[in-house]
Design brief:
Layout: H1 4-9, H2 15-24, E1 27-33, E2 39-45, E3 47-49, E4 52-58, H3 62-69, E5 72-78, E6 89-100, H4 103-117, H5 122-132, E7 137-151, H6 152-161
Antiparallel strand pairs: 1-2, 1-5, 3-4, 4-7, 5-6, 6-7
Helix pairs in contact: 4-5
Amino acid sequence: MASMEDILKKFPLDEDRLQQLYELQSECAIVWETKDHWPVGVMHRYLWHDGKIWATCSGLRHRVKALQRNPKSSVIITGLGTELGPVDTTVTIKTTAVVHSDRETKDWFYLAMGERRNPNDQERALAMAKNFDTPNRIVLELTPHKIISYDGRKLAAAMADGTLDD
């Protein structure tokens, strides 16, 4: 009998559902390694743009120095709370991080994030962009290197039709 890991590998998200997950979800967990090699993470609001995950935080956070020291990181996104439904829809992405503090990156990111959070209200989007622009704030760019996804609907269908062990 196949291991659970081998079984789950057979049910990745299709590319269109993966893109839908990136667009519908607004939160992800970003994980990095501390100086003493402990993996830690925190939830972030994010923006999916040009095939990358973008987020922001204060440049004074320990995670920023950690990601500058070792850019190897990961991002976890689930379908929880989206129209993708309660069935497991998840992706874990091995990433490398780049920390941006330049004005050009901040300007496009703050506005894009404001518009994503306020898609029908340009005035509120602009206000949010302005509120993001605080001293020491940086923008994180997380570039995917490996994507590990899972579509629980596929597993449920295979169990229902008896093809799980095929």
